[in-house]
Amino acid sequence: MNQSNLCPRFEKAMSILSQRWTGLIIYQLLAGPQRFCTIETSIMISGRVLSERLKDLEHEGIVKREVFPETPVRIEYSLTEKGRALEPILKEIEKWSQTWLEIEGDAAIQK
């Protein structure tokens, strides 16, 4: 397929979602609002990369950052309506992966 035939919006969507860790961050936030450290430990991502991705997703309007004026300050990240709209897509990818992909060790376990 020629790149000139690609819809610019589709191309931008793929550019956003294909960034490393982005899909996993969004998938993790489907469970509800979470603090930085929870996301970081859940998907085993470095703090620096997580911070960059969250800023990118916030800039795109996919993630909302909420600061609670408590002592110490609490910050939570959640999906916006735009981010929640990705849920059916991610659930379908999850379903597809369960049907079609093996992880290392699966073959040894099945034997």
TrEMBL record:
Pfam families on file: HxlR
CDD domains: HTH_ARSR
Coiled-coil portions: none
MF GO annotations: DNA binding
Record keywords, A-Z: DNA-binding, Transcription, Transcription regulation
Domain HTH hxlR-type: 7-105
PROSITE patterns (alphabetical): HTH_HXLR
Entries under InterPro entries matching the protein: ArsR-like_HTH, HTH_HxlR, WH-like_DNA-bd_sf, WH_DNA-bd_sf
Identification of the protein by name: DNA-binding HxlR family transcriptional regulator
Species assigned in the record: Bacillus chungangensis
Highest classification ranks of the organism: Bacteria, Bacillati, Bacillota, Bacilli, Bacillales
